[in-house]
Amino acid sequence: MQRRFPLSVAAILLATPVTLTVAHAAEAGGFCTSEQTLDKDQLAATLIRTYPVSTAYLSVGKEPAPLTSPRALVAWLLHKRAMEKSGGQPCQGDSCNVDHMAADVQSLLEGQDARFQPSGRSDVVAFFRDDSHVALRCKVADATPALAHADTALRMGLAAAPAPTPAAGPATPPVAAAAGAAQTQQGGWMDHVRIRGNPDQLSIDHRDKAAFASVDRARVALANDDVAQSRTNDVVVYAGYSLDKRPMGEPGSTYEAVPYVGFKQNRVINYDSGSAEVTTTRTSQVGMLSAFHFAHADTANTEDLTARPDYLVNNSDGSRLLTVNFTLTPVRPGVLNDFLRWNNGLAFKPILIGQSRNGIYINRGDPDVVDQHRDFIRLGAQAGFTLSSTNPALPFDFTTTFTGLKALQGSRSIHYWKSVLTYNFNQNVGLSLDYSNGLLPDSGDPERKWGLGVSSKF
To answer: What angle do CA 266, 271, 273 make, to 5 degrees?
Structure first.
């Protein structure tokens, strides 16, 4: 059963930028007390900053997480993880960060850091409890503990970023620790590569687990179209490269640009005329996705806005289409566009995304399709859900969405339903069974088909 709790002022410790380093924490007040012992609250706060965990992880468990002090919270996290390990659960995302906490503190308790001397024997869980009498004595007044796993820390699958942040600066809201950490951290060049089946989702970092679980995959599929009485081999891929994110406005808010190219190829065998007729069509696209992530100082809620100019070339009918597309994704942790994790091995994510699609035909194409190619302005939303297994033995996810767009200009309003069931070989490659029915959001063409194929996302 999932419990939700208010974010108290003490929980702002979770909101401090994950980029805060041990050195900055020491400057904020030092780790050693006047009695030359390590301040457990200061150590706990630094562990949370270095190895943050999401509000979703805190809300799952038999007892709510205590947010009265960093020390109490770390003790709760270590106990929760110890129970998970006793049940044979391997670490994943948040729980890996708790393992990093435990490993670093255990090294201190074993005397592996020459700057500190333990006063007795203790395990990491008991060390942070209020009734613990075990202390770590500082051999020098300005002793600072080394956090050996900081460079490989996971935050929902993310490596922690060690960029400096002013210790006295404003706190970043908890969502910046939950999803925004992905947006401020810079990884290797491969972490900037995006491969998707939907260009609107190229701004989603693969290390942002909640958002990444629902992205459309690039695919190679076999499909049967009941409307057109045809069999189709589909190839759909959008490849982009994320440029470095830049901070803006409130701490945790960022801007990112993702130039991309897209390619679609359909080989259709049509049986409508009684004999097999084979045609191959190709479209190619180029565009620039601008992604704005808005964080707020007094709440865990965020909004993601994307603006995407796109130029599409249809090689089959000669048309050229210039579009400007917008999406607005409100993220409400544990409520909307974020996972609700259940104890039965499943996680559920409600989806609601505002959309606007606006197009001008630079060239309407061949004479037989000119009447269909009308400029358009469409406004509406996409709604649905993702159901994902958290059991490694059953690595599947299911996403179903309905897109409804009202035609403010042009003759075609959009209604499009799509469902995809995927068995994941790993995080990036799977086998997908999909079904779609309605008018395509990009072109307004009718479609009803199912397909089975290999799919991938990066």
So the answer is: 120
What is the spatial distance between Cα 247 and Cα 241, in angstroms, rounded to a whole number?
Answer: 18
| Neighbour-count burial of 63, counting CB atoms closer than 10 A to its CB (0-12 exposed, 13-18 middle, 19+ buried) | exposed
pLDDT given for residue 417 in this prediction:
94
Per-residue pLDDT reduced to its tens digit, 40-71: 888 888 888 888 887 667 766 556 778 778 88
pLDDT, tens digit (0-9, with 9 covering 90-100), for 95-131: 888 888 888 888 888 888 888 888 777 778 888 887 7
Cα(256)–Cα(37) distance, integer angstroms:
44
pLDDT reported for residue 24: 38
Intervals of the chain under pLDDT 50: 1-28, 154-187
All residues at 6 or more sequence positions from 392 whose CB lies less than 8 Å from its CB, including other chains: 90
How far is Cα of residue 233 from the mean position of the Cα atoms in its chain?
A: 30
Provide the b/e sequence for 439-456 (b: ≥16 CB within 10 Å): bebbbbeebebbbebebb
pLDDT value, residue 224? 65
Query: pTM for the full model?
Result: 0.57
Tell me the CB-side half-sphere exposure of residue 298, using CA atoms within 13 A: 0
Dihedral (C-alpha) 181, 185, 191, 194: value to the nearest 10 degrees? 60
Listed residue (104, 147, 105) closest to 18, CA to CA: 147
Q: Around 389, how many Cα atoms within 13 Å sit in the side-chain half-sphere?
A: 14
